[in-house]
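Troubleshooting log. The previous run stalled partway through. Resubmitting the same two chains, unchanged.
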Amino acid sequence: MIYNFPIDWFFISILFFIGAYCMVVSKNIIKLLIGFEIISKSALIAVITAGLATNNINLAQNIIIVMILVEAVVIASGLALVVKYYRLNQSIDITKIINLKG
Amino acid sequence: MTLYLLIYFIIIMGAVVAVISKKLINSAIMLALLSIGVSILLFAYNAPWAAVFELSVCAGLITVLFVSAVSLVKHDEENIKENRVKYVLLPLLLIGFIISASIIVPEYFSKLQIFSTYNTQKEEPIGKLIWLYRGVDIIGQLTLLASSVFVIKHIFFKRKEADNGGKI
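Second attempt completed without errors. Output:
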């Protein structure tokens, strides 16, 4: 098994940076969800790398299965909210979501 | 080692193109490519169960959800006036981040690896781990699934015509 823990974390940090940048910059809600997905992918690789480093690969797989399910639930609910909001207000611009503003 | 670097290159290129792409449908497809890259990485790291879940749920289900949502809100993506300069800046910022991270991150995590406790015993099979040791997670997963079903049901509920003056 050839793997390198520090190099893995180097790529994980790059992936996290891309996702965080996407979430900070974009106004489109679907783009925000895409950024969230990229960040969760980086977290997933982090868990499997930590599992490899400590010889607990099956436990890491177990946690990853739960993570994937949480990811799918969040994305499904978020996209349902986006579609509903678009039907009501004809927009998915996050700066225009001010209906709940006090 | 070259194989891993190639897989990581695919993952990062998929992420960058998903972020800087102008059309949302291209972003969704590049996200699927990213998921496929991650699942290949998981197969290479000897984690086949996680890889199968990743391939079926993230590369399959979530891509379908994204594509359907994009097709439902398709007309709006031109109306949002986004500053594209921010997206074009990403590769430049990424190069700066790569250079600074290559100095700091590997050194820090090689120090951190010293403190990790290595499991010397033979590990339990995954079925036993799921059902015996982490059985509570199954309840949590079922609750999450049920909550998501309730959220979607209540978002797309069918109003009676009398409630809203004939409008749906």
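Takeaways: Residues 119-157 of chain B form one domain. Chain B touches chain A through 79 residues (CB under 8 Å).
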